[in-house]
Design brief:
single chain, 71 residues
Length: 71
Amino acid sequence: MRKLVVSLYDKQLLQLFMEEAEKLNFIFRNEIIGIYHIGSNSVPGLKAKPIIDMMPVVKDINLVDTFNLEM
């Protein structure tokens, strides 16, 4: 059985999200429309799993696989 870990809100997760978003912006360049921090740890003060959920939005989903090597 897997255990679910829920932690107190951690302000550092926002900084880690921004660092990862910067990397994705560099890799996908002009294909990125936006990158959103989603999930429970994106809500200040809310207890959450210590996992950063991200939703990148791209212009053409069919081109995403062409970035596999860079990822």
